Amino acid sequence: MEASHEKAQYQREENQKKGVKDDLATQAIDNVMYLRQTKQFYADLERMVRWEMGQPDLWREIVEEYQKLLDQKSEQAARELHEKRVKAWQRQRLKNLILDRVLETAVVVFVIGYLICLMWIISLHRRGRLDTFLS
User: Fold this and answer.
1) Are 33 and 69 within 8 A, CB to CB?
2) Mind listing the pLDDT tens digit for each residue in 51-64?
3) Long-range contacts of the stretch 38-44 (C-beta < 8 A, 24+)
4) How confident is the model over 81-107, as pLDDT tens digits?
5) pTM, to two decimals
6) SS3 content of the chain, % helix, strand, coil (to 5)
7) C-alpha of 35 from chain center
8) Strand (E) or helix (H) holding 6
9) How far apart are CA 58 and CA 70, in angstroms?
10) What whole-number distance in Å separates Cα of residue 127 and Cα of residue 97?
11) Where are the domains of the chain?
C-alpha cells in the first residue's frame, strides 16, 4: 500500500524533472486512495487490538503515544522555524549595520570634502583670487 504510493510519488517527481506535466486527476485519485487505505488500515488495527486481542487500554496507549510523537514533531518544526527566522533576522541586522556604517562613512567623507572646499574658497577670497578662479 505505502510502497505503491511512494512509487507513484517518485514517478511524479521524475516526470516533473523531465518536464512532463503530471495529470492532476491521477494524482488526486492516488492521494484519495492512499488516504482511504490508510484509514482502513488503522480502523482494522484498532478493531484487532480492542476486540480480537481484548486490550482496549493498549489502543489508548498507542493513540496517546502517537499524539505525543505528533506534538514533539510539531514542536520541533516550530523550533526549527523560529531558529531559521532568528538567523535570517541576524543576517539582515548585520547587513543593515554594514550599510549604516558605509553610509555614515560616505556622509563624513562628503562633509569633510565640503569643508575643505569651503576653506579653500575662503582662502582664495582672502587672497583676492576668487574672481580669477570663478571666471
Assistant:
1) no
2) 888 888 888 898 89
3) 38/1, 41/1
4) 999 999 999 999 999 999 999 999 999
5) 0.50
6) 90, 0, 10
7) 28
8) helix 2-18
9) 18
10) 45
11) 1-54
